[in-house]
Specification:
The chain has no helices and eleven strands. The strands form two sheets. Strands 2, 4, 5, 6, 9, 10 and 11 form a seven-stranded mixed β-sheet that branches. Strands 1-3-8-7 form a four-stranded antiparallel β-sheet, with no helix packed on it. A hairpin with a 4-residue loop joins strand 7 and strand 8. The chain is mainly β. It is globular, with a radius of gyration of 13 Å.
């Protein structure tokens, strides 16, 4: 499975960005897709994920501001980020999980910078 992420950039506090992640390859092995982020000096953390049934899970820090969605026809997951804060600044990584092999796949990371 290959994951191609896009959509990062520089935005002012309060602004919005949308990240996209397109999956290719053995996509039928994938169940959950999601986004993680890693800020400088911090561990990678879950931002949000969505399974093949559309069930979502969000980190408390982004609940109500971020929305994850999935287009199964395009094998793409999106992360709509609104009301961005400087503390959202991080490299965002797309993730896909294959439960049968307990394998996690990762995209290349896209930088989101929120200026105050």
């Amino acid at each position: 499975v290959q994951l191609q992420a896009s959509g990062g950039g520089l935005v002012q506090s309060g602004g919005s960005l949308r990240l996209s992640c397109a999956a290719s390859g053995n996509i039928f092995s994938i169940n959950t897709m999601g986004w993680y982020r890693q800020a400088p000096g911090k561990q990678r953390e879950l931002v949000a994920n969505i399974n093949s049934y559309g069930t979502t899970d969000y980190a408390d820090a982004v609940q109500g501001r971020f929305t994850i969605s999935r287009d199964n026809a395009k094998n793409t997951v999106y992360l709509q980020m609104n009301s961005l804060k400087p503390e959202d600044t991080a490299v965002y990584y797309c993730n896909a999980h294959a439960p049968a092999t307990t394998t996690d796949y990762w995209g290349q990371g896209t930088l989101v910078t929120v200026s105050s």
